[in-house]
# Entry
Amino acid sequence: MPNLEYLDFSYVVQGAPKNVSGTPVFKKKTDIYKMLAGVSMNVGCTKLKKLALRGCEIQKQEIKALRKVLDEGVYRLDISFNPLAEHVVDLLKDLSLVEVDLSGCQLSDKGIQALCSSLETLEILKIRDNSLNEENCKTLAKFLPGAS
# Structure
């Protein structure tokens, strides 16, 4: 795995991928996070740049394992359709991401604040399918390029 740059575990919980014999690749949700922990510990895997975990039901307790992988230099992250709400604060704090997809993550006011603090490095931000209120939109707008 030393040249692995893109890792996609999307929708592993709902539609678990199967191997050629029809056996699910991951028997349970925690297997994903054991794999993530293994990726972060594998010195030869520091080239991982893009990680996709769409719809994997990421919960607060899994953020620590995910954060270790992100700290290794991942700069594109797709965690859309995970119920993160305010837990996105712990995930995005002090990261230098270039692209992040938080579509359908049920972002809370705290989550929006965390997102704004990491907008300096972001080039692509996807936040569709979140119930953002007017105040959240105004907060985000302040951090967009050209805002005064």
Summary: The helical segments are 30-41, 63-70, 88-92, 109-117, 134-142. The chain is about 30% helix and 10% strand. The mean pLDDT is 77. The chain has one domain: 6-142.
